[in-house]
Write a structure and sequence with these properties.
Blueprint (H helix, E strand, L loop, with lengths): L5 H4 L9 H10 L4 H8 L4 E2 H7 L5 H13 L3 E6 L5 E6 L1 H4 L2 H23 L1
Antiparallel strand pairs: 1-3, 2-3
Amino acid sequence: MPSPSPASRRKTGGCPTGCSVEDTLSLIDGKWKIVILYKLLRGTLRFNEIRRQIPAVTQRMLTNQLRELEADGLVIRTVYPEVPPRVEYSLSAKGRSLEPVLLALKAWGDANFGAQAQARAA
């Protein structure tokens, strides 16, 4: 079943100034998409490598999120004609362009949640 396009996933509210924000969020919404994109910043990964790095995600959810990221042009899926088949995922140029956003989210999380974790430990 093909993934709905970002435009069809976006809520239509007719917002003239925030539409690019809504469009962007429609590409990266989903429980695991930002985490997957962040993991792929380090380079190409196979499916099970991603799964090992994100142990809380189910196989089905990871598959669905990767399919949507691929359909939206953020991730490149490469299948090698081997037995067993080898499938690798990497960021496309469009996906790589999110690097500053992903790093900013990590820095914000480190600054805000890191302080909370230290406060709880004290």
